[in-house]
């Protein structure tokens, strides 16, 4: 269970090449059971880097290794590798389908793995209960729609969803943005617990104080990115 990026470079398509690469020669590794915190100024490229690490976007050059399996631009990503990477995004409101109850949102990855067209909460009731407990989510809330719960409760549900398939690697982009200190501590605690179970966890956050409380190591994007001097001033 590990994540490694080697010599990764990236420029957003359509951006001015004279402005240089957003990411340049970037190396990063997260071992099994480790929480790595990533901080950088707004616009420096954290979200872009996390999307590359999660194999959602291919790097222009360099490699991403998930559990030792190497991916570079053009390498097809097998479904089981995609499923071994859990992702938590900054805004649970943007990430959650407002028409789906929390139970459906959380168990959707389980249904899709079985080839089902839609989530089947009753079929996955046992696993749903486990996930709700892991995410410290009152099971009563599972019957509600996103607009009927708080941001913190919804983000806990989205963490539960990211854990549904027991990911080997967990990538979190500002998972505690917009949360109060209690929910922040709860969400970071869940992610740290997941690492304790062996998962490699990478978290980007502006809340460096809270993040450094759970991270085994903290990285400054400017320190691992040769484009660091330019990034953040785009
Ligand atoms: N699809 C895109 N096309 C062109 N430029 C983009 C695209 N997405 C992001 N950018 C630019 O790339 C830079 C890095 O964006 P990114 O979202 O990775 O930054 P970030 O460090 O996560 O910022 P924040 O902390 O504000 O979320 C920014 O200057 C942004 O405007």
Automatic annotation (TrEMBL):
Endoplasmic reticulum is among the record's keywords: no
Assigned keywords, A-Z: ATP-binding, Nucleotide-binding
Gene Ontology MF term list: ATP binding
Gene3D superfamilies tied to this protein: P-loop containing nucleotide triphosphate hydrolases
Superkingdom, taxonomy of origin: Bacteria
Keyword ATP-binding attributed: yes
Domain ABC transporter: 3-234
TM ranges: none
A Pfam family of this chain: ABC_tran
Entry protein name: Peptide/nickel transport system ATP-binding protein
């Amino acid at each position: 269970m590990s994540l490694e990026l080697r010599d990764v470079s990236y420029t957003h398509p359509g951006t001015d090449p004279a402005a240089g690469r957003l990411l340049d020669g970037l190396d990063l590794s997260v071992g099994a059971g480790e929480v790595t915190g990533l901080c950088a100024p707004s616009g420096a490229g954290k979200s872009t880097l996390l999307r590359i690490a999660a194999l959602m976007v291919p790097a222009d050059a360099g490699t991403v290794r998930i559990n030792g399996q190497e991916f570079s631009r053009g390498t097809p990503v097998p479904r089981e590798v995609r499923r071994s990477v859990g992702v938590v995004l900054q805004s649970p409101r943007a990430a959650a389908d407002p028409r789906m109850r929390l139970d459906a949102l959380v168990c959707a990855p389980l249904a899709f793995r079985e080839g089902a067209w839609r989530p089947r909460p009753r079929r996955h009731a046992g696993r749903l209960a486990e996930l709700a407990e892991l995410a410290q989510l009152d099971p009563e809330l599972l019957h509600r729609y996103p607009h009927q719960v708080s941001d913190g409760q919804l983000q806990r549900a989205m963490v539960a969803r990211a854990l549904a398939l027991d990911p080997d690697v967990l990538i979190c982009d500002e998972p505690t943005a917009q949360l109060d200190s209690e929910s922040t501590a709860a969400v970071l605690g869940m992610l740290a617990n997941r690492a304790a179970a062996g998962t490699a966890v990478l978290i980007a956050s502006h809340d460096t104080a809270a993040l450094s409380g759970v991270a085994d190591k903290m990285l400054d994007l400017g320190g691992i990115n040769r484009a660091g001097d330019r990034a953040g001033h785009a």
